[in-house]
Amino acid sequence: MSDESEVKRIRGTGWKNVYETLRNEILALTLPPGQLLDEMTLAERFDMSRSPVREALIRLGADELVVTLSNRSTIVAPIEVATFPKYVEALDIAQRMNTRLAAALRTEADLKIIAKRLKSFEAAVKTGNHLAMSEANKEFHMAIAHAGKNQYLASFYEKLLSQGQRMLHLHFEYLERTHEGYLLTDEHTLMLNAVRDKNVDLADELAHAHTRQFQDNFINFMRENYTTDVALGPLRAAE
């Protein structure tokens, strides 16, 4: 390959490496909320021009993982504790609706995919790699959503799951420290069984309990590690 062709390739695709690397570091909290992302520094780090770096930052902004300030500086998006109650309320509704639909409409092919995603999640849990766990967790729940056959609800759910991956990282840390890691895989198994049995009401209850467990453990983690005056009330009980 000529030097000119290599330059064209880098200009066309170089942002992908920057994007994927920074995305993983943000989700794993290696790059903490509020961290300044300087284009020049990143360009030097990745040994490329600022154009692909800028493209990567634009795409991370579309994922709501970075924020551009009024002075045009870019930072890692903060984890907005103040809006957590509204976030988890939306997550609860999306999780329950998608899981209910999956229980009602799943096919045998859907069940195979969900079961495969469950095994992938269990394997990720054994590694203790929180980023791998959060990615596998998202894939498991999206397999359930796709079984529900409603692309609009599934798309909304996927956005919420993506937005919550950094909080899920802290949730995993709390479960491991409190020796309650078994909840990670057991709850998913129960959800798969409910979907398999076409038990819509049980699937709804389990989805709600799953959200509540995430909420409670995230709140406990924040209270142990940070000081906050934000009121984080409980979810209402499943109907």
TrEMBL record:
It comes from the Bacteria. GO terms for molecular function: DNA binding; DNA-binding transcription factor activity. Keywords: DNA-binding, Transcription, Transcription regulation. Transmembrane segments: none annotated. SMART domains: FCD, HTH_GNTR. Residues 12-79 form the HTH gntR-type domain. InterPro entries: GntR_C, TF_FadR/GntR_C, Tscrpt_reg_HTH_GntR, WH-like_DNA-bd_sf, WH_DNA-bd_sf. PANTHER family: GLUCONATE OPERON TRANSCRIPTIONAL REPRESSOR, TRANSCRIPTIONAL REGULATOR, GNTR FAMILY. This is GntR family transcriptional regulator.
